[in-house]
Structures are given as C-alpha cells and as structure tokens.
C-alpha cells in the first residue's frame, strides 16, 4: 500500500535537521515519487549544445525516468522532446546520437514530426478523417518538455509546464558554470568524446552527497593516492623536480583534513553548493605554456588572473549534476532505481586553449571517474556497502550533522568550514521542497480507499 | 636470437597466465619503461590523449595499480577479485626480425569475479613486442573491449 504518495507530512518526516531516514535511499516508492516530483519540478541537465551542433542533430538521454531527445531545430534552437511516438508509444530514436534531417519519422507507422515535435504527416491520413484525432493530445505530435534553457552552451529542461524559473532555481550558483566557460579564451566549450559510463548499485543521492564529502578522500582513497605518494617518494627524485601530471592529479587526494577544512564550502538556495571556496585539489596544477597569454589577450591580465584564481573543487547542482570548473568536467548521476545509478562523466575542451589542458582533463577523467579507476573502485565499494548496510533495522537514520548549527537558513547563501555537511543538509532541504511542492494531500485518502 | 612465430605466441600465453595467477612483479618486468597499456572507451578510438579512455597508463601507473591490489586498506579488494582469460591462438600481424619488433592480435574472453558477482568481457588485445637484450618485452598493449561503450560496474584487475 502506498504510504508516501500525496502525503507531504510523511515526506517531511523523513528529513530532520541532523539526520535523514533510510527510506530516502532504499524505498522504491520514494524513488518513484522522486521521478514524479523532484525530476519534474526542478531544472535538470540534458546535454551540451556542442553535442548537437548542426540542424537535425539529436542526442538521446533522460530526465529522471523520462526518455528525452535533445535536438537542433531548423531555426537553430535546441529543443527537448519526450522520446515517444504519440501513436503507439514507440521510442522515436533508439541510438544515442545522430542526425534526423528536417523531421523525425517513427519507424513503426511512419508518423512524422518536425524537430519541434509538431505533427508533420501520417500515411493514409484519411483513415482518421472525422475521428477527432486533431483534438487529442496524440494528434498534436511529439510532446515537448515544459521549458528549456540554454545557459552558455549547457542545456537544462524542466519537465513541468509551470514552475520555478531557471533564474530563480539556480540564482548565484551559475557562477561555477560561468567560471568553467570563461576559462576558454573564446568563452566557449566543446564536448570531447563519449562519456564514461559507470554503473553503481546504490541510490543516486549517495553519489551526489559524496561530491561535497571532504572527510572521505584521505580515508577511502588511501590505497590509491597514498600508494601513489609512497611509490613516487621511492623514486628518490629531487623535491623540486616537476611532478608528472598523474601525480599532480592523484597526490592531492591525500591532503590532510586541514586543507579540506580551509578550502571552505558555499551553499546556495535550492540545494546547490560547492567545495573549494578558497582553494581546491585543482589549485596547484602546473601552468601550460601559452594558455595564460591567450587568456590575457581575451580578458586582460587582471580579469584573466581572476578567472584562473577561482579554483572551485566540486559544484553540485540539485538534483543530480556535479561540475569541476577548473578541469571542465561534468558528472551526471542518472537515477535508474532506488538502488541503481548510472554515472556519466563528460569532458569538454576549452576552445582556443592549448591541447595540453584537454589532455590533463581526459587523464583526470580516466584516472578518477572510470569503472577501471583505482580511485573510483573504493568509492563504489563505500556506496554499495552503505546501500546494503542500510538494511539494518533498529538504526534507521543516516547522520548528516557534522558542523551543524542551530537555525540554519538554506534560503540564503552561506560560506562555512570545508568539512561541514551543510551542503548535504541543503540538498535535503531542497529535496523536501521539490518533492512536496505539487503533492495534493486531498488526493491521498481517496486513492487509499480505492486500493 | 631468432624470434619465431611460436615464440611470440608462447609469449602472449605466458603473459595472460601471469595475470590470471596474479604474478604481477613478473608481469611488470615484461614491460619496456616507456610502454603504455591502453584500453579505449570508444569503438575504434584513435586518440588516447584528448578524449577519455578507460585506461591509458604508463609504467608508474601500472605499478601503482598492482601495488594497490595488495594494500592493507584497499577496501574494494576485501575480498580480492580473481580473473581468468581464455584466448584464441594469437595472430602474428607484423614480424620485423631485423628491427626486432613484432605485432600480435589476440581475441580473448575475460572473466573477473568477486564475491557473488562474475562478469564476462570479450576483448581484442594488440601487443607491440620488442626484442631487447635477447628477451621479448611489451612495448605497448591495447585492449579493446567489444562493448567498450557499455555501462560497467567495477573492473578491478587487468583484462
């Protein structure tokens, strides 16, 4: 029997100031409601415009559990359509990307649609004459999402027709996207290759929370980063010898707690936040010849220094995206089930910057985010152990109270000690908000009576 | 030393046996110092550097990978994974006796297991082999997983 549907009080009871109930990670019903409410009411990342550069280019992905198509329309705009023929339900595209020309054509009965979703033609259409097809939703064409926004090349969509505006949803948090894009002397990013695809048998929120969990790297990753530091020391190179790029990437994972405390965490309204307010594990990468010069040419020295001086670590966008501005990486935590999450890790090239920067980004991605990564292996082990451990009865709450303060106000921006779990609390504050905003308590008793 | 086709084929068989038996010190000793183990992410990928790969590791990284497997705090290896290769007879694609350089292609099935899970991968391994001081060594190795673009859980050992 349904317990949480249209029951906002029951949803609110799962999130307390300092702890959350395990059902948020384990309940299939909660998962279904997340898809229906959180992923419909918030602005969810779809793709990058460079994945569909030409008219008719499309890219198939999903928003929560909803299959969608990002497509470049004949007028150059990018549309996001639900991937379903209005006729029998057949997915219109099944490959991950391609070019459809001026229209989509369903492979089942050849209904065709413009790349804004409008019905173009139906074979033997006289069979529908006088049947009222044009008055049905199915007769209008492929369904579009409620709203689409292209922010500096990154495409976001809100499934719901009505709801929070893009600007209100993200507010000041867009500064992390700005910094990532501004790092290109052309102010432009371009996707590089396919994403890593890494399957996790755990809840999607565990992955999101881990992005601002600064007390785990030196513990969970001792086997990889710690061993790297040890092996490098054994080489006996002089202390001032330039470190190979792989060491520049992995060694900072072993930084002491103090480094993470001092880096700071900033939280924004609606569940967004980032680590690395003052510095991050990306701060001390060596300079690439020619890059600073190219940046100065575009921005002037002062602005160039300001852009490159911002070294945010992980910026989390509620509900399921993380970006790393300094290395142009985006990770998407795609929810598949309460205990199943697909992580896709994308990288982008800084247009007009030296290739060495792209090579470093690609190296970071394969070293840290791949299913073959010696760093990723231990993260996945932690998540999956947690998913299994949450089965324990009689201890049903997950603790998120590190550096908790009374009367925390998540509707205002705040900067705190870098080891606070405030961002996790911030996410759950947003989780309750977007989960309950369109629940209808009056619907609940009627439905339960019917069951 | 004159290298025969059989020498090359035996070399490949011995290499996978080292991997399956976890004899990693011997395995690392097969490598030339500037070699790379490349596992592409994309089907027919040509660029190891500027797009993402599953692995593109030099000897330092391979040594780190192997050393980590035996660490006291290597949590994802408690308990340890095991692996098993079944290989077809390697094709010798290039045989340049004068330069002492050789290329082989080998089709394999790779099984990796831990706890109650077991995964099967189909692979094509391309070895660049060099004769140095009378011994065959791995100059470079490329391993293409047939479903390289699929979503995987952990792949922890060396396919």
Describe the protein's architecture and organization.
- The complex is a heterodimer of chains A (451) and B (159).
- With 451 residues, chain A is α+β, with helices and mostly antiparallel strands.
- Chain A has two domains: 44-151, Rieske [2Fe-2S] iron-sulphur domain (Rieske Iron-sulfur Protein), CATH 2.102.10; 194-435, Naphthalene 1,2-dioxygenase Alpha Subunit, Chain A, domain 1, CATH 3.90.380.
- Chain A contains 16 helices and 21 strands.
- Chain A has helices spanning 8-12, 23-26, 28-41, 166-170, 175-182, 204-210, 217-220, 222-234, 245-250, 257-263, 291-299, 301-309, 355-368, 376-389, 422-436, 443-450; strands spanning 19-21, 44-48, 57-63, 66-72, 78-82, 97-99, 103-105, 112-114, 119-121, 147-151, 154-158, 189-191, 196-200, 265-267, 273-275, 315-317, 321-324, 329-337, 340-350, 397-399, 414-416.
- In chain A, strands 12, 13, 14, 15, 16, 17, 18, 19 and 21 form a nine-stranded antiparallel β-sheet that branches. In chain A, strands 5-4-3-6 form a four-stranded antiparallel β-sheet. A three-stranded antiparallel β-sheet of chain A has the order 2-11-10.
- In chain A, helix 3 crosses helix 15 and helix 11 crosses helix 12.
- Chain A is globular.
- Chain B has 159 residues and is of the alpha+beta class.
- Chain B contains three helices and seven strands.
- In chain B, strands 1, 2, 3, 4, 5, 6 and 7 form a seven-stranded mixed β-sheet that branches.
- In chain B, strand 6 and strand 7 (135-145) form a beta hairpin.
- The radius of gyration of chain B is 16 Å and the shape is globular.
- Classes of the chains: A alpha+beta (451), B alpha+beta (159).
- Chains A and B meet through strand 13, helix 8, strand 19, helix 13 and helix 14 of A and strand 2 and helix 3 of B.
